[in-house]
Amino acid sequence: MRELSQLLRSIPIESELTENPSFRSQSSVGRKLGNFAEFDPNVATGLPNGGARDKLVWDEFWESPGALEETAETIRSNIGEMKKSLLEEAGYETIDFAEAPEGRVLTRTHRYRERNSEIVEAKKSKVFDETGSLLCEACQFDFDRAYGSRGKGFIECHHTLPVSQLDPGHKTKLDDLALVCSNCHRMIHRKAPWLSIDELKKLVRKFRSN
Fold first, then answer.
1. pLDDT digits (tens, 9 = 90+) for 18-50
2. Element (H, E) at 156
3. How far apart are CA 197 and CA 202, in angstroms?
């Protein structure tokens, strides 16, 4: 419990959290584990404070211990990269997705990978050379057509592989990236589990046909 508490408090999240002595303290970690026990059919009693996010995490991992272990290891291995991304993310928008603080390690690292300017430009150049335009892969929005010269060459880049599924040191390939408009990008990341490009395409088609 002590080791886990120290690890969680070492994650470079918002300072107002980590400077609070009760944030992910040993007793706090114990209470959180007790919250998860409420959903465990093999445990007679648990703390009656498990919320919707706790249930979401439990449902995702309780029958997938291997995935849980991989995600935990990814968080550990990405703490260093997380610190680097925080130093280099000046000017990036605030990440306000509905996640617990530890989940932001994966989200911020994911977003940091998406901001790698060299590979983003390489992806955009490849798509433009092949198609003559930069359309959102989910909804086909065209910034050039909508905004003229101001939108020419603009589109956002989404890393299709969750950081939790990447091995430490994974080198991003062009096929790992998808070009999406700002709205679709936000919808992908709005809540866990994140949508795939195909899932978002189906959502767009469904509501456009109504």
1. 567 777 788 888 887 888 888 888 876 655 666
2. strand 156-159
3. 9
Contacts 24+ apart (CB under 8 A), 102-106: 102/8, 102/11, 102/13, 102/75, 103/192, 104/13, 105/11, 105/13, 105/75, 105/78, 105/79, 106/71, 106/74, 106/75, 106/78, 106/162, 106/163, 106/164
Angstrom distance (rounded) from CA 178 to CA 160 = 7
Whole-Å CA distances, 48 to 34, 41, 45, 57: 8, 14, 9, 16
| Coil vs helix vs strand at 6 | helix
Locus of tokens 């809540």: 191
Tokens of 113: 């990978």
For 76-134, the DSSP string reads HHHHHHHHHHHHH-TTPPP---S--TTHHHHHHHHHHHHT-HHHHHHHHHHHHHHHSS-
Peptide bond into 12 cis (omega under 30): no
Q: Please give the structure tokens belonging to residue 187.
A: 């919808």
What does the pLDDT look like over 120-155, one tens digit per residue?
A: 889 999 999 999 999 999 999 999 999 999 999 999
Residue 62 makes CB contacts below 8 A (sequence gap 6+) with 39, 40
Which H helix or E strand runs over 171?
Answer: none
Structure tokens at 145: 């057509």
Helical packing angle, 52-61 and 65-88, nearest 10°: 120
